[in-house]
Amino acid sequence: MARKFLSGIFWLILLGGFLTYFDKANAAEFEVYPVRLFLFHADWCPHCKDELRYLESLKDKFPNLTVIDFEVSQSRENKKLMDKSVQAYRINQLAFPTTIIGDKYIIGFDNSESKGEEIEELIKKCSWEKCTGWLDEEVGRVANNFNNEKIKIDGALAGNYQSSEIKINQKEVSVFSKKIDTEGRSIIFLGMLLGLADGINPCMFSVLLFLLTYLLAVGSRKRAIKAGIIFVITTFAVYFFFMLGIIQIVEVLKIAHWLRWAVIGFALFAGLIMLKDFFFYGKWISLEINDRFKPTIEKMIRRGTVPSAFFLALFSSLVELPCTAGIPLAYVTALTERELSPYLPLLLYNFFFILPSVVIVLIVIFAWAKAEAIEKTRMDFRKWMRLIAGGILILLAIALYLNWI
Q1: Per-residue pLDDT of the chain (405 residues; tens, 9 = 90+)
Q2: Same domain, yes or no, for 310 and 206?
Q3: Are residues 281 and 384 both part of a single domain?
Q4: Which of 145, 127, 221, 197 is nearest to 396 (CA)?
Q5: How far, in whole angstroms, is CA 369 from its chain's centroid?
Q6: End of a domain among 170, 202, 235?
Q7: Is residue 11 part of a domain?
Q8: Does any domain span residue 268?
Q9: How much is the pTM?
């Protein structure tokens, strides 16, 4: 019995010694390079505040990390430094927040699992491989040069520096010479849904049905096919270049913040008017084609030629913008704040936008249903279409305000 007791004590001491040795070995110091994270942010940007809070939580996790932030909305000097950084790092489209470590940059911030994970992986990489970039040299001169020598870290923190081997931008694919990541796929999917919702548009349907009804009434199916195709293609081109033009203007003038607030206001205003139309259609203010434009549209329809179909689509697209602009503007606002090529998202948005019109053209031309029957259905359900469109616009306004998109 005594031998068993002494044997147990011996093994406990041996186990304790082993654990003590393992703990000391695990706690041995190791060396890493200092990592400097530069953050450009603005006071009005909620995503910036989220990232600042997130970076604050990383200080204990990565003692070699130094966060240097530049608030640009209140500082002209910081704004100048940001503009120089855009050129130095060849940043295609600056958005807030912008995070720069070494010669790499990350645009935007959503949560700790997505952008936060990218930031952490970059911190880990640069802890083992010295990372320096233009900002290290530029800011370092003002700060009397930064220390680039390795620093010792407590071994207890070694697990924090173990990379999960997720490469930065590993999930990105090239599209039109720019990049679309997993966030890009979600915004593309959102664009497809919004484009389809935007395409169920009573203003567009009414003009298209007037055109097809007239052409079929004069017995020219061939002209109806040509006119319908020209109308749809022209409408696609007008809306595509309208949305692309807005994006280019925002990039040049750097007014993404002001566009967001303008679109929030417009989407909320237009959504409330459309909800009003559900209960009191045609009373007070309504977002529809103005009566003074209808004689011109009717003249173009009666000509029934391919050129007239082109000008009809062009003219009607312009005069019905108050009726249809809310959803595409909301989507453009979401696109301007992401480092994405706009071409593929806009192509898909507008493809789904014209899809309902294509279906109507096919249905009417191939006599699957009479235009009069479709027009009657449109008139019967126009209030419900306004209710759906108004609800979507109000939801988009809320989503933009709360930075959900």
Answers
A1: 444 443 443 344 344 444 444 444 444 578 888 999 999 999 988 899 999 999 998 988 899 999 999 999 889 899 999 989 988 888 877 788 999 999 899 998 988 888 888 999 999 989 888 888 889 888 876 555 677 788 888 877 777 787 654 333 333 333 333 333 445 678 888 889 888 888 876 666 666 666 666 666 656 677 777 777 888 888 899 889 988 988 888 877 767 777 878 888 888 888 788 788 778 776 777 666 556 666 776 666 666 566 777 777 777 777 666 666 778 888 888 887 665 678 889 999 999 988 888 887 787 777 655 656 666 666 666 777 777 777 887 888 888 777 676
A2: yes
A3: yes
A4: 197
A5: 39
A6: 170
A7: no
A8: yes
A9: 0.52
Backbone angles phi and psi of 67, in degrees to 5: -100, 125
Same-domain status, 121 and 44: yes
User: Does any domain span residue 25?
Assistant: no
Q: Whole-angstrom Cα distance, residue 5 to residue 2?
A: 5
The sign of the CA dihedral 199, 203, 207, 212 is: positive
Q: Do 202 and 159 sit in the same domain of this protein?
A: no
DSSP assigned state of 159: G
Containing 227, the helix (H) or strand (E) segment is: helix 221-253
Provide the residue type at 331 as one letter: Y
Pair of tokens at residue 69: 């932030």
Q: Does 164 lie in the same domain as 181?
A: no
Closest CA to 182 of 169, 167, 191, 164: 169
